[in-house]
Amino acid sequence: WLKPLAQEPSTSCPPGEEEAMLVNFKLRGACVAGWRHVSSGARASEFTLAPYRDCPKLGFKKKAQFCMLTLQHPAFKDSVTKEMRASLYKKKQTGTAEHVDNLFASYDTDSSGALDSMQLREAMAALGMPTTDFQVADIMSRRANDTGQISREVFTAVVDEAWGRTKDVDFSDRLGDLNYGAAHPGLLGPRAVLWLGRDSPMSWILRSMRGAWPESVGRAALLRNTQDNPAYDPMFMQTFCDTISDTFPNTDGPRTIQELAHAAAAQLPTEAGGFVLRLSPVDAEAVHVPLRGLPENELVSASSTGWLANVGTWMSSSLRPASA
């Protein structure tokens, strides 16, 4: 009673990416259109954000003041044990330390072992930090040594200010038990999980997403589609918030984490107004990762609704609905 009628490959996907196909399904006599999103690399990744109502069987023991941020990433599928997943972030820490060493050396042009204010400004730009006179003077006043310079040891603290320290990341492969309603595909497979206060400033999302990503990331930016954008083409996105300016061009946009979750749930990341995160890893090209917003979860387990839940699970893994 549920079968594909037609498949139309998208011609707008970048070279080297698997195609997203627009699929028409017949559901009990009615035609339903949706995206079958089959992809690899960054396109197989997604962030989700939702207000969280505690589900005791998951064991998180989080109260109602939290939103749950999750990350689906291809590397998590191959890391089947807790130790293997933890090793991803240990490798990230090692890579970050090496990058910091190289970055410091590249701007310590006189090999003095310290950075003056001009050298610091250039290093801050490379880190994705604001480089206004105020920002530079603030760091120099708090971090400089007696000679008015930033030592290599102190430079690590500057990096921590910009990127944040690598957080402890929880993992769960049971998030499919959370029911978000028929309009929103469930959270299937292993995912990294982080927690943010509902009323926390929206800009905190960038630091949390950067911390959750299993690679060292410099600059991060939250973008918003200016039109329907199934291929995640950057030409059809505008910056909503980033780590350099920390500004919000759209004064009518969300200001808290919960408001962002609601705004992102109003449409798909591929649609006009949808949110996409741009991450710039320190040793790779920038990637664009969709942010899917979800409503607050219901307490009823999706697995307790019988045959309909089984169909919903299959559709969640195969389809990206045309509308939320």
What secondary-structure arrangement, pairings included, does this model have?
Blueprint: E1 2-9, E2 20-27, E3 30-37, E4 46-51, E5 66-72, H1 74-78, H2 82-107, E6 114-115, H3 117-127, H4 133-143, E7 150-151, H5 152-163, E8 170-172, E9 191-197, H6 204-212, E10 217-225, E11 237-242, H7 257-265, E12 275-281, E13 287-293, H8 307-318, E14 320-321
Parallel strand pairs: 4-13
Antiparallel strand pairs: 1-2, 2-3, 3-14, 4-5, 5-9, 6-7, 8-9, 10-11, 10-12, 12-13
Describe, in short, the structure shown.
With 324 residues, this protein is of the alpha+beta class. It has eight helices and 14 strands.
Describe this structure in words.
The protein has 324 residues and is of the alpha+beta class. It contains eight helices and 14 strands. An eight-stranded mixed β-sheet has the order 8-9-5-4-13-12-10-11. A four-stranded antiparallel β-sheet has the order 1-2-3-14, covered by helices on one side. The protein is globular, with a radius of gyration of 22 Å. The two termini are 23 Å apart.
> Could you say which structural class the secondary elements and strand pairing correspond to?
alpha+beta
Q: Rounded to an integer, what's the Rg over CA atoms?
A: 22 Å
Question: What profile does the largest beta sheet have?
Answer: 8 strands, mixed
Through-space gap between termini: 23 Å
Strand content: 25-35%
Averaged pLDDT? 77
Strand order of the largest sheet: 8-9-5-4-13-12-10-11
